[in-house]
Amino acid sequence: MRELMGIINLEHERDVLSELTYYRCGAAVPFAGRYRLIDFVMSNMMHAGIEDIALFVRRKYRSLMDHLGEGRPWDMHRKRGGLFILPPDWNDETDVSAGELRHIYNNLDFFERGAAKFIVHSGSQHISTVDLNEVYEYHLEQGADVTLVYTRVNAPREEHRSCARLEVDEDGMVTDIHYEHKHDAVYMEMFVMEKSRFLEMADHCIAHGGNNFFRDAIMQNRHKLNIAGYQYLGYHAVINSLESYYRTSMNLLNPKAYNSLFRKQAVHTKIKYEVPAKYLNSADVSNALVANGCQIDGEVKNSILFRGVQVKRGASIHNSIIMQKCVIGENVRLENVILDKDVIISRDHKLQGDFRKPFVIAKDISI
Prior knowledge:
This is Glucose-1-phosphate adenylyltransferase subunit GlgD. The chain is α/β, with parallel strands linked by helices. It contains nine helices and 28 strands. Helices cover 21% and strands 27% of the residues.
């Protein structure tokens, strides 16, 4: 949709996934056997027909840049517009902006060149299949200054504690914004706003020492703005800790959860051509996600295997996540474990974590 341009803002997302974010930002963390967390918001924007996307990054973004490339899997490889990965480039000595507002100030040319009149602003930690066209149409119908996307959570978990909550009246308008943990209307860190109003409010925040658009422009002015709340009813998960990452991943082994996330609309990712998984004579696999290129000659139960994993004879993997090109040696026992990519576990080792706190090994380690 030419009326919308996308902003994916990673400035405020900290590297909180333990060993999985030693060498990459959270948005680049592998997920569900073949994806990265960034793929979900990218795919949502692609399905909405958005032709211009700016990605605000600051730390550990090499892996993310390698994954996204020129944006071809999301139809962002364009002669005009497309995907813009915008790392810090702040050389203006007169610049008084701070925090995420500094990205806006130093990339005004992105907004000025784009023909779209509205922006959709999002992070990467909320996994969903939200229809952004519906959000945009709802925004226009409500005549709002800004529309915040939220979902209702029946049983708030620890990962929801840092999420803002919305009070929404029967007309769909937001009457309050707060952080009361027991409240069920969780803000999904996604909003739609007219571009000119967005830039005007960002400029005002910068002039008054602000550094966070949602807090300083929207939340602090909630009684002055006409704020609509769009309720999203589909699959939703927040991944902002190692525990939430592990629990969300394991939940996808439930066919109902998996279909809720992946059957509504396609989730696009970087294409890698590999042979199908190969199951040898001793393979025993049940309730598992197994990606292409794997070779299995052991037992895999209730686990997720990314591309190119080798499981040797006699090995046993239970309730674990094994990332790309790991090698699991003969007679190895793994339970409640997360292995980052290119880990090698030699024969006869046993590693065991807890389902509430899995044992994690960072990438490129041999044991």
